[in-house]
Amino acid sequence: MSTKIDIILKKKLRNPVLIAGLPGIGLVGKIAVDYLVSELKPKPILFAKVYSDSFPPAVHAKNSILEIIHDELYIYSSKTRDYLFLVGPVQPALGNVPNSQDHYEFSESISSFAKKIGVKEIYTFAGLNIGDQRMKAKPKVACVTSDEKTKANFEKKKITNVYFDKDNKDTLISGIAGLLPGVAYQNNKISGICLMGETDSKLTYGDPASAKEILEITLKLFPDLKLDLKSILESAKKIEESFSKMAKDIEKMNQPPKDETPTRNNYIR
Amino acid sequence: MSTKIDIILKKKLRNPVLIAGLPGIGLVGKIAVDYLVSELKPKPILFAKVYSDSFPPAVHAKNSILEIIHDELYIYSSKTRDYLFLVGPVQPALGNVPNSQDHYEFSESISSFAKKIGVKEIYTFAGLNIGDQRMKAKPKVACVTSDEKTKANFEKKKITNVYFDKDNKDTLISGIAGLLPGVAYQNNKISGICLMGETDSKLTYGDPASAKEILEITLKLFPDLKLDLKSILESAKKIEESFSKMAKDIEKMNQPPKDETPTRNNYIR
Amino acid sequence: MSTKIDIILKKKLRNPVLIAGLPGIGLVGKIAVDYLVSELKPKPILFAKVYSDSFPPAVHAKNSILEIIHDELYIYSSKTRDYLFLVGPVQPALGNVPNSQDHYEFSESISSFAKKIGVKEIYTFAGLNIGDQRMKAKPKVACVTSDEKTKANFEKKKITNVYFDKDNKDTLISGIAGLLPGVAYQNNKISGICLMGETDSKLTYGDPASAKEILEITLKLFPDLKLDLKSILESAKKIEESFSKMAKDIEKMNQPPKDETPTRNNYIR
Amino acid sequence: MSTKIDIILKKKLRNPVLIAGLPGIGLVGKIAVDYLVSELKPKPILFAKVYSDSFPPAVHAKNSILEIIHDELYIYSSKTRDYLFLVGPVQPALGNVPNSQDHYEFSESISSFAKKIGVKEIYTFAGLNIGDQRMKAKPKVACVTSDEKTKANFEKKKITNVYFDKDNKDTLISGIAGLLPGVAYQNNKISGICLMGETDSKLTYGDPASAKEILEITLKLFPDLKLDLKSILESAKKIEESFSKMAKDIEKMNQPPKDETPTRNNYIR
């Protein structure tokens, strides 16, 4: 089967942009794009379902109706263009087991589907693990792009709270957040932007405060998206409060927890 | 090779229903369908053998004759229709290693074979891990279906001790018990019902008491199946007795064993 | 690549029998067939090399010349027939990771090659883990066959120290020792016999005493094989001596090591 | 996708030799060939990029531009011939999980590409784990070759500090360093030489002193390569100093760390 995309809604798209947020570090990307799908008005409509035999061999049951695990593409039409949101509970499994092929195949399938329906820009939202540093300041958002031209265009927009790494250091971005724009640019010449909200990988239940930062940038990038951030602001506030409490608690202790180093290496192995 | 089904008995089937019970949590599904195969009168006949190169690379030897590991389909003919029972020692391995393809391929093979021989309904029997709660009451049976129509038809039968989850919670069903009806409905429009007997995943030697509950429901669903439940009732009683003894022993202790949380998550990763 | 067999020696074979001994429990099968290859006179000749991309991704270097890891088929010609010995450092990896496909593909390749060159009988030699029981008596040899006729023929030979399991218990034989005769019979109607010397799986450096028992049976089965067992008898004696010493040491202790249960299960999972 | 080689520079090659140094034990091979690419004058030019879906599913970002993980082939043209250097951050993952196919496929792809562009000799540089022995002397370089003729030609050059194993022991060389020359000779009759600098596998940050020894041999083998070794000599000196300090520290201790045995086995399993 590999990856299969079932179109639910037949529709000619106007200058579509694809924004993907699948589970990953701190669930940052997932929370951000899920929020867009649930809070935009009118509510985005299911456009396609994405199945893959590299997803877990399991079904979801909701109200006792079962459904094969899949991701979904939602469509939101503003006055000028169409937005596609790729959301869902899974991406091919990351782990210490080599199953790279699954990831490449998934990215290639999404990318060639995007090409076919006219997508010229892909955004992926994700988390960037900065370990315990996360507790000490408002999370910033790191940006990497598929190419210099896309980077220059982005920089022109002068958006605050986003930064580009300027040194020559190698950053490693694992999973679909990096691979999808990488493959989309290389195979299909689709320009790609990956926005990564700083987070702490220990936040396995999700970091809405980091997701909120990405959403604020999203609203600046796409002024025709109108979004009420109230609800995510509340979740974010709770996280920040528990952080500041934790930070104080930790200060009192002699042995702070070891800093989990962010995922930056020069050599992969 | 992938999955290969060798038909042993050539026979035109009358309105066949497929009932699958392969090893899983508490061995509930396996015990239930094995019981049907061994206790129905006249004894069900071997209809087909199911081989797969995703099964363990091993052979069984019985009376010193070896045979490649395989599952089996047995047939039982009542006056009005044919029953097919899928039983055996294995399903593709579940683990923390991504081998999802094996599961999808296996489900697709069984499903398209079922379609070909005229199956319009698939039942899968399995266990549902409720942890230590298992000890405290007679196990109930959870039901999920492939679609609303199948669910409505089932509900009309007013069978006791079966429940449908009514909330909006996601339940995750791993392995063939969920994937087979999921794939069969999606690929072949076969309606599917998964009956899950409540059990405790620590019961690795099997939970006949939970299997018995499924069998009682089975007899109500299919009145032309006549089955003596005496023998499984005895096994079930033993399990229940050792449970109630355990429960008392545990009450006396200060530190009860940690409750193993049932397999329900909102996010898979 | 999968499995590839490079024939080194072109030769028409006379009623060939294939005897396989690859690494496994106690290295019993490997030691026995390696001994045949090194001690038969005249020395068996290299007949073919067996490569597979399921073997470890590594090379052997001997005298600083490297060679891709492979197994080998040696040929020994008696007056009446040809013997093929399958030996080598590897079989597809067994482990807790599902790679069953590699094992099936390997067995199918060997089996269809055997068919092509006229093999009508396959013997596999292996170890049977009986845990600490191994220390207490001379190892016996268990025999399983591909079919009743082969079993009956074998039994007629009244060979001592070999036994057939007569009960209805399921024995599980993992790896090529079981799978090769299983596949060869099912796919190519080649009759198969698996001889398993009792051993202790903790003997990771090999159990020559158990291999010796298989060799003695081999000489009775094939009277035209003349083999000096002196050298393996010496190795076997050393193993037995260290066992009897160990046994005495253990007797003195209060807490004997736990018996590792032999690989017999009724349910695989 | 498997392995894909994108040629960047179209050029007819003159008697090309391929020298590969990918990550492995002590990073010895990688450090050596990376050094050639960065220090040769004029600087070697990017000739091709090597992608593979068996590489990690991740992208690198440098100056915030992302790129799919890949290895690279650089070209250096001396007066008489062309040198190709295979460098990069990855080779297919080694681990305790069977993914042998990835390694074979990668080696076969590189080998058949090399054949196509006229390569008749392949060198691979790597580390040889000798455990704590590494601390006690200047690292020597072990050499294995694809065939006797290549070995004889190499020996004629009377290069110091290189040794051939003369005993009959099996040495096991894992990964591309061994498999590439193995496959290249077997499939494409390309002669191969693997140079392995002695190192300690615990040196996960790299052993430039061992790499330096390989580079000195490289300069003797290819006199038209002119290379300033000053910078690697400095790194090497630092490693050696910290070693000699460590050695003294350890001498003072009663319990020296256990010697990690070098990767030499007779049986793989």
Number of DSSP helical runs of chain A: 6
Q: SSE string of chain A, helix = H, strand = E? A: EEHEEEEEHEEHEEHEHH
Shape label of chain A: globular
Oligomer: homotetramer
Uncertain residue ranges of chain A: 254-269
Sheet with most strands: strand arrangement of chain A = 1-3-6-7-2-8-12-9-10
Secondary structure: helix percent of chain A: 25-40%
User: In angstroms, what separates the terminal alpha carbons of chain A?
Assistant: 32 Å
Strand content of chain A: 25-35%
Largest interface: A-D, 45 and 30 residues
Could you tell me the mean pLDDT of chain A?
88
Radius of gyration of chain A: 19 Å
Question: For the report, how would you describe the main beta sheet of chain A?
Answer: 9 strands, mixed
Q: Give the structural class of chain A.
A: alpha/beta
Number of strands of chain A: 12
Give short descriptive properties of this protein.
alpha/beta, 269 residues, homotetramer, disordered C terminus, 6 helices
Question: How would you explain this protein's 3D organization?
Answer:
4 copies of one chain form a homotetramer. With about 270 residues, chain A is α/β, with parallel strands linked by helices. The first copy, chain A, has a 9-stranded mixed sheet with strand order 1-3-6-7-2-8-12-9-10, sandwiched between helices. In chain A, strands 4-5 form a two-stranded antiparallel ribbon. The two termini of chain A are about 30 Å apart. The first copy, chain A, has helices at about 30-40, 100-115, 150-155, 175-190, 210-220, 230-250, and strands at about 5, 15-20, 45-50, 60, 65-70, 70-75, 80-85, 120-130, 140-145, 160-165, 170-175, 190-200. The first copy, chain A, has 6 helices and 12 strands. Mean pLDDT of chain A is about 90; it is low at about 255-269. The longest helix of chain A has 23 residues, at about 230-250. In chain A, about 35% of the residues lie in helices and about 25% in strands. At the A-D interface, helix 2, strand 9, strand 11 and helix 4 of A face strand 4 and strand 5 of D.
